[in-house]
Specification:
About 40% of the residues lie in helices and about 25% in strands. By secondary structure, it is an alpha/beta fold. InterPro entries: LysR_HTH_N, LysR_subst-bd, WH-like_DNA-bd_sf, WH_DNA-bd_sf.
Length: about 300
């Protein structure tokens, strides 16, 4: 008999690609993870994980078992949801991981709505970038992720997650006031090819949006300054340190002294935001109202 918790450990190793990282995510020791993997291999009669200096990867047998593990774990989430509904589980705590702007745009308004419509639900919020928040959901560290589409993000048909689209927003060009294009009504990304750039660190989903926009315009941006805080990006632009592309919502209420903000000419780079839960958990009586409140809060942005 295969134990479900061992399937969860196998998936964590596949997601994190090292035993050490999977153990940290699951709040276990690496030796405990190794012991559970060894027990799973004994249960199945197959070698499931290959380890090397570069990390751990699943064998062909491990990949087969992972496919079934995703289905089994999703079914267990559904069972928990139905049992909670049977027990009228309309009171409890839901933990949401979201990036800073998403917290302001949809999470905080959703909390206000839930206080009136579902007073038994308490929401706890953790600030996390979109790529990190999805793993936090899969590792059961949080219940809901508000995340950003990025290169390498789980697809909509990923068997581990259920996604709920929230909103999409364009990026605007942020230029120093003395920039040669400051008086233009719109700015083409291609016209910024020779400028120094300011942008998020690699790994931040917005970094991918900026780099892809520049690649589509025919060049690689010369990123001279890096920050995941868009306020810092704007401050650097105001000091004429470079140009940037910034999500429109991140600029709201910000001190824009020293910069000009212009829409991008042509097809603007876009940040697509969605909520995600573990597949099978979308109908949990605690999570369903939270997802509905997030969707409602996002409607004005969509």
């Amino acid at each position: 008999m295969i134990e479900a918790r061992r399937l969860h450990i196998l998936r964590a190793v596949a997601d994190h690609r090292t035993v050490t990282a999977a153990a940290a995510a699951l709040y276990l020791t690496p030796s405990a993870v190794s012991q559970q993997l060894a027990a799973l291999e004994q249960e199945t009669g197959h070698r499931l994980v290959e380890r090397s200096a570069r990390g751990a990867r699943l064998t062909a047998a491990g990949e087969i078992l992972l496919t079934h593990a995703n289905a089994v774990l999703a079914q267990l989430e559904r069972a928990e949801s139905e049992l909670a509904a049977y027990g009228s589980g309309e009171a409890g705590t839901v933990t949401v991981a979201a990036f800073a702007t998403g917290i302001g745009l949809v999470v905080a308004p959703a909390i206000t709505e839930l206080a009136a419509s579902s007073p038994g639900i308490r929401v706890r919020v953790q600030d996390a970038e979109g790529d990190a928040s999805l793993l936090m959901v899969l590792d059961r560290q949080v219940d809901v992720a508000v995340a950003v589409e990025y290169r390498g993000a789980p697809r909509e048909d990923d068997p581990r997650l259920t996604r709920v689209p929230l909103y999409a927003e364009p990026f605007d060009a942020v230029l120093p006031v003395g920039h040669r294009l400051a008086s233009a009504e719109r700015v083409a990304v291609a016209d910024l090819a020779k400028d120094p750039w300011i942008g998020p660190y690699s790994g931040n989903p917005c970094h991918d949006v900026v780099v892809l926009a520049c690649e589509y315009a025919g060049f690689q941006p010369r990123l001279e300054h890096s920050s995941d805080d868009f306020r810092a990006v704007v401050y650097l632009a105001s000091a004429a340190a470079g140009v940037a592309l910034v999500p429109r919502s991140a600029l709201r209420g910000m001190d824009l002294t020293g910069v000009v903000v212009r829409p991008v000419d042509g097809v603007a780079p876009t940040r697509r935001v969605f909520a995600a839960v573990r597949r099978g958990a979308e109908n949990h009586p605690l999570l369903r109202p939270v997802l509905a409140a997030l969707k409602a809060a996002a409607a004005p942005q969509a």
